[in-house]
Amino acid sequence: MSEFKSGFVAILGRTNVGKSTLINLLVGEKIAATANKVQTTRTAIRGIVNRENSQIIFIDTPGIHKPKTKLNETMVETSFATLAEIDLILFVIEATSEEIGRGDMKILEKIKESNKKAILIINKIDLVKKEKLLKLIEMYSKEYNFEAVIPISSLKEKYRNIILDEIEKNLKPGPAYYDIEEYTDQTMRQLAEETIREKALLLLKDEVPHGIYVEVEKMKFRKNQKGEPLYDIEATIYCLRNSHKGIIIGKNGNMLKNIGMSARIEMEKNFGTKVNLKTWVKVKEDWQDDDNIVKRFKLQ
């Protein structure tokens, strides 16, 4: 029998290259928000994959971007802070890139400094011709000695085992760090907040800038009158402006109802229980520069 292997794998990349969609595919569960918006992921989310001969712990980091607020600075710090404690890097880039842009070069420099094993994942290959892809592979291979280069479309299930096999090949023998039944170390409260925020981003589209965060104020487990397990959840969506509050609530409260309904359905699926969800909207103009809030997004 093969020796059991384990390790921590960081997924790095610029904002919006598909890292969260990729981690959800690899873990096989919905753990990271996947709204098509810049900075959807704010903390380093760990996803756990248990295989016959290995345990792979993924750290999905916030996308690298130019910081403008304390929140942005914290997110970028979190991304690079993960490199000290991991065994392998998955560096995700877009197949549509014409050259190595400033953001990708910054990540490459950090990978070089870390001198860690790295696998290059080229996402969204369905959008380009083969010649362009080969040129991109050549360009990046000159910059760093990657263990492997894997072109993918992260929405397709067939790439899952190709990537996991390659990761397993590059891990060292080690113990299972987490119980094999677990797939994330996020708390139920964090998963609830993440779900509500994702649904808000998806439904609001570009109407509200990215300045929202969600706080679950109450999460209580009980049994209803039929004896079925149930979570009572009360959450507040914070936004930066009064005008945003109106958009989030919507005409006759319809937008907020839709956000709550979508989030509740997703949570019931993830938690395996019924959910009674109540949501409110409040304005907090300076939250992106409030240390007490921003520290919640630091690497735990």
Question: How would you summarize what this structure contains?
Answer:
The chain is α/β, with parallel strands linked by helices. The chain has nine helices and ten strands.
Structural write-up:
The chain has 300 residues and is of the alpha/beta class. It has two domains: 5-173, P-loop containing nucleotide triphosphate hydrolases (Rossmann fold, 3-Layer(aba) Sandwich), CATH 3.40.50.300; 188-297, 2-Layer Sandwich (GMP Synthetase, Chain A, domain 3). Helices cover 35% and strands 25% of the residues. The chain is built from nine helices and ten strands. Strands 1, 2, 3, 4, 5, 6 and 7 form a seven-stranded mixed β-sheet that branches. Strands 8-9-10 form a three-stranded mixed β-sheet. A hairpin with a 2-residue loop joins strand 2 (45-51) and strand 3 (54-60). The chain is globular.
State the distance separating the first and last CA atoms: 35 Å
CATH topology of the largest domain: Rossmann fold
What CATH architecture label of the largest domain applies? 3-Layer(aba) Sandwich
Percent helix range: 25-40%
Structural class based on helices, strands and sheet pairing: alpha/beta
Q: What's the domain count?
A: 2
Regions with pLDDT < 50 over 5+ consecutive residues?
31-43, 63-76
Main sheet makeup:
7 strands, mixed
What is the overall silhouette? globular
Number of strands: 10
Task: Tally the helices.
Answer: 9
Rounded to an integer, what's the Rg over CA atoms? Answer: 20 Å
Order of helices and strands: EHEEHEHEHEHEHEEHHEH
Q: Give the C-level CATH assignment of the largest domain.
A: Alpha Beta
The CATH superfamily of the largest domain appears as: P-loop containing nucleotide triphosphate hydrolases
Question: What percentage of the residues does DSSP assign to strands (E)?
Answer: 25-35%
Indicate the mean pLDDT: 78
